[in-house]
Amino acid sequence: MCFQRYFLIPLITIMVLGVQGVASEICSEDVPTLVIKSKDVVRKVPKQRHYTQGLIFRNGSLFESAGMYGESKLIQINPKNGTEVVLKDLNEDFFAEGLAEINSQLYQLTWREKKVLIYQTENFADPETKSFSGEGWGLTSFEEKLVLSDGSAVLKFLNPGDLSVVRDVSVRLGRASLTAINEVEEINGQIFANIYGKSIVVVINPKNGCVNTKLDLAELIDAHKKEIVNSEGAICGSDPCHPYDFVANGIAFDAVTKEIYLTGKNWPMIFVIKNPISKN
Ligand SMILES: [Ca+2]
Q1: N or C: which end of the chain has fewer CB within 10 A?
Q2: Which domains does the chain have, with CATH numbers?
Q3: What residues contact residue 163 under an 8 Å CB cut-off, 6+ apart?
Q4: Residue 201 and residue 205: Cα distance in Å, rounded?
């Protein structure tokens, strides 16, 4: 008995501490859901329909990364009237994805081509190309690192110099992993993310991957459904569009006005709302 006690007590102690250690990493399931309605929209910016994969705000302009093979572009959009300028037509072998700015350079991700196009400030004609591993979906920056989503639940933090992975976190709500993380945007130290095929934006703590708030866009999308998917919008080229071709995707933030820009794939508008998270 004595022998067992000697080993049992430390073992129990280790187990309890271990459980506590794990418990501190378990994310809360009970997070607030903020319903975004039409009345929350400060203004609507008209927009050309593109397969929006990335959206950022910098120096008073919006920049969009539009996807699809043969249609991928980098576009500058006037946030007041939606007027656009195509800055770069990508090689038809590239399917553009997320877009981020870091160190005054724009990084444009590609989906399965394992390449990132890097544009020097105001030089959009001849981007540098660097390689990375895996798929590319969304891209933003946080604490001097690029933050990449790849369709899984994992966010990868990349060194912007050589695109090596410095660390990663799993995005979780309670004990559940949230997969299909798509477009991402760092806003006041939190990562706002679209989830492919869903009408919600999740707000993620980049330190531990825990979702701490959800923005529900379903009511807003429903109220504008006829504009988003009009009689023509239901057809893309000669083929019917997949319903997912009209899902919410695209988040940008103007740090001066504290306004968030929200759009979706092939949407003809961008919704502008005030940051609904009061502490921000
Ligand atoms: Ca973004």
Answers
A1: N
A2: 3-15+27-274 (2.120.10.30)
A3: 116, 130, 131, 132, 146
A4: 13
Question: Which region holds residue 228: left if phi is over 0, alpha if psi is between -120 and 50, else beta?
Answer: alpha
pLDDT digits (tens, 9 = 90+) for 135-164: 999 999 999 999 999 999 999 999 999 999
Reduce the DSSP state of residue 147 to 3 states and report it.
Answer: strand
Collapse the DSSP code of 100 into the 3-class scheme (helix H, G, I; strand E, B; otherwise coil) and give the result. Answer: strand
**Can you tell me which residue has the tokens 């724009």?**
106
Looking up tokens 């705000």, which residue turns up? 57
203 and 190 Cβ atoms separated by less than 8 Å: yes
* Contact between 248 and 180 (Cβ < 8 Å): no
- C-alpha 185 – ligand 1 centre gap (Å): 4
Q: Give the number of C-alpha atoms closer than 13 A to the C-alpha of residue 272, restricted to the C-beta side.
A: 18
Ligand 1 centre and the CA of 191: distance in Å?
A: 10
Please compute the mean of the pLDDT values over residues 6-30 and round it to a whole number. Answer: 54
CA–centroid distance, residue 55 to ligand 1 (Å): 4
* Span from the CA of 107 to the centroid of ligand 1 (angstroms): 11
Looking at every residue in the chain, the average pLDDT score rounds to 89
Give the angle subtended at the CA of 218 by the CAs of 185 and 149, to the nearest 5°: 30
Return residues with CB closer than 5 A to ligand 1 (ion).
55, 185, 251
Q: What is the pLDDT of residues 119-136, one digit of tens each?
A: 997 789 999 999 999 999
How far away, in angstroms, is 222 Cα from ligand 1 center?
23
Task: Give the distance (Å) from ligand 1 centre to CA of residue 270.
Answer: 13
